[in-house]
Amino acid sequence: MLPYSVNVALGTVTVRNVAVGEVAWGLGRTPAQVAPAWTLRNPGVTAPVIGARTPAQLEDNLGALDVDFDASQVARLDEAGAISLGYPHDLLAGDHIRKVTRSEMRIPTHR
């Protein structure tokens, strides 16, 4: 269960927020450590962006370098963090488009 926060009160907590929080608490870490540690696992990320404003927050974020995930934790975070590809992917992945582009639909000749 998430502790009280302004985000909970406003209803802006996402599935991703919950997953990061639960994995963090399961590891005895903070979400500010788990989120960048998870981001660093992505080979396309050269450096995670952290939002530390104080030395204490920076020190907390740097704890991400010592976070080790097991396979189930990574799977949980990856599932929660999956981004919908949206338009035009959803349109192009539709059955009717696939049938037309893969020649599964035949147009009868009029001869």
From TrEMBL:
SUPFAM superfamilies: NAD(P)-linked oxidoreductase
A Pfam entry, by short name: Aldo_ket_red
InterPro entries on file: AKR_Detox_Biosynth, NAD(P)_OxRdtase_dom_sf, NADP_OxRdtase_dom
Molecular function in Gene Ontology: oxidoreductase activity
Domain NADP-dependent oxidoreductase: 20-80
Presence of the UniProt keyword Protein transport in the record: no
GO cellular component: cytosol
Protein keywords: Oxidoreductase
PANTHER family: NAD(P)-LINKED OXIDOREDUCTASE SUPERFAMILY PROTEIN (PTHR43364:SF4), NADH-SPECIFIC METHYLGLYOXAL REDUCTASE-RELATED (PTHR43364)
Name of the molecule in the record: NADP-dependent oxidoreductase domain-containing protein
Organism: Streptomyces minutiscleroticus
